[in-house]
Each structure stands twice: as structure tokens, then as C-alpha cells.
Write a structure and sequence with these properties.
Elements lengths: L1 H38 L3 E3 L10 E7 L1 H4 L10 H11 L4 E7 L5 H11 L6 E5 L2 H6 L3 H18 L4 E5 L9 H18 L2 E3 L22 H19 L1
Parallel strand pairs: 2-3, 2-4, 4-5, 5-6
Antiparallel strand pairs: 1-3
């Protein structure tokens, strides 16, 4: 009788554990679905209050740096700050933040056709950092970036393209790090597009300008990113 009781008790515990696993898995699945829905959202970042339908469009196509990961308000990310600068100068452009946290160049390649429905007058390409941090083969990163540039040029030949340069720590060796850094100026020269030498200039590696993960800029850090971008973007808009 005692053995029967133990067996039944053991079966009951296993059933509870199994049910708990199912519940946890379901929660994770729902969370992934929620994240997925958020990730495909393209935010229009603007401080304008008047009708902007006749404005020219600037698409900022990037990853978490563009999306403003960890910030309380997406308008505190550098695309939103660019919009504020543009509005103050009454230049008549609407900035569209098309950043997705965790995005790679492969992911960008897959969604570029959909994003180009925005009909950009200026296209800022900020991708590659996640490739470098994951050790993606450099040839793949370069080909994906070239594909995106080609897609923009083919659909909108008059669109001005700005490529954001990126650098990474030497996690995969100095050779990989150096070659990664050189991808961006090489592509800019080949395609005759404007280049931001290093998007994170004066921000990367400075603890006070980055969040606790040491990777994503704070709101203060994004102000410097906006300045880095504006130095290259301003001559194009004016």
C-alpha cells in the first residue's frame, strides 16, 4: 500500500512538472509573438504638429542603435533628434525610424523591399554591428550591405544614400576587426555614397554615455550620435 502511494505521488509530481513546463513554454511563445509584432513596426519619428504628407522622407534603416533600445522614448534616439534639428531649420523632411533591435545585414536584406515603400529621398544605412559581434563571415556582411545599396539605387536612382561606419572590439581577432572596419569606407567609395566614418565616435567605450550593457548609448549618448550623423547629412539636405 505504501509503495502504491509513493508511485501515485511520483506520477502526480511528474504531471505537475510537465504542466509547469507547458505553461512556461506557452508564455515564452506568446512573448516571442509579441516581440515579433513590435519588431516589424516602422515608427515615424517627428516633432511636427502640422500635416507632413508633402514632406520628403528620410529613412533610417538600422538595428538597436537606430531603434533606441533601452530608451524611455524612441524620440530620444538619434533619428528623433535629427527630426528635431530638421524641424528647427524648417527643411521639410520627415524622418522614419526603421530600426529593429538585433537586426543583422541578412535581416535587413530580407525586409528592404518592404521598407522602400516609404519612397525615401535620403536613405541612411546603419547595419553590420550585430554581424560583427556574432562573427558573421565578412564576405557575407559585405554582400548583404551591397545588396541593400543596390536595392535602393535600383528602385530610386535619385535617392541619396548615407552609410554609417561601424567598429567592433577584437573578440574574433585583430584581423577580423580591422577588415570589418574597412568594409564601410570600401563600400562607400565603390558606390559613391556618403559615409559617416564611425557612428559611435566619442560614445563607444565611454561608460557614462552608455547603458549598463556597455553597448547601447544613453539619451545623452544619442545626442552625440545625432551630431555625428548630422555632420554628414546636413550638406545633403541643404
Amino acid at each position: 500500500m505504501k509503495n502504491t502511494h509513493k508511485i501515485l505521488h511520483s506520477i502526480f509530481l511528474k504531471f505537475c512538472y510537465f504542466s509547469l513546463i507547458i505553461i512556461l513554454f506557452s508564455c515564452k511563445t506568446d512573448a516571442k509573438k509579441t516581440t515579433s509584432k513590435k519588431e516589424v513596426t516602422t515608427n515615424v519619428v517627428s516633432t511636427k504638429t502640422e500635416n507632413t504628407t508633402n514632406n520628403k522622407c528620410i529613412v533610417v534603416f538600422g538595428d538597436s542603435l537606430t531603434a533606441g533600445y533601452g530608451l524611455e522614448d524612441v524620440k530620444d534616439a538619434y533619428p528623433g533628434l535629427l527630426q528635431q534639428k530638421i524641424d528647427s531649420l524648417q527643411l521639410g523632411y520627415t524622418v522614419i525610424n526603421s530600426g529593429i533591435s538585433g537586426e543583422t545585414t541578412a535581416g535587413g536584406k530580407n525586409r528592404i523591399d518592404w521598407v522602400l515603400n516609404q519612397k525615401p529621398s535620403v536613405f541612411i544605412l546603419e547595419l553590420g554591428a550585430n554581424d560583427g559581434l556574432r562573427g558573421v563571415p565578412l564576405t557575407e556582411t559585405k554582400m548583404n550591405l551591397q545588396y541593400i545599396i543596390d536595392a535602393v539605387k535600383t528602385k530610386y536612382p535619385s535617392t541619396k544614400i548615407v552609410l554609417a561606419g561601424m567598429q567592433i572590439p577584437p573578440n574574433f581577432g585583430q584581423d577580423y576587426t580591422n577588415e570589418f572596419k574597412n568594409i564601410f569606407p570600401a563600400l562607400a567609395q565603390k558606390n559613391q555614397v556618403a559615409l559617416i566614418p564611425f557612428l559611435l565616435e566619442n560614445v563607444g567605450g565611454i561608460p557614462s554615455l552608455n547603458q549598463s550593457d556597455g553597448i547601447h548609448p544613453t539619451a545623452k549618448g544619442h545626442k552625440i550620435l545625432a551630431k555625428n550623423v548630422w555632420e554628414v547629412l546636413a550638406p545633403i539636405l541643404k
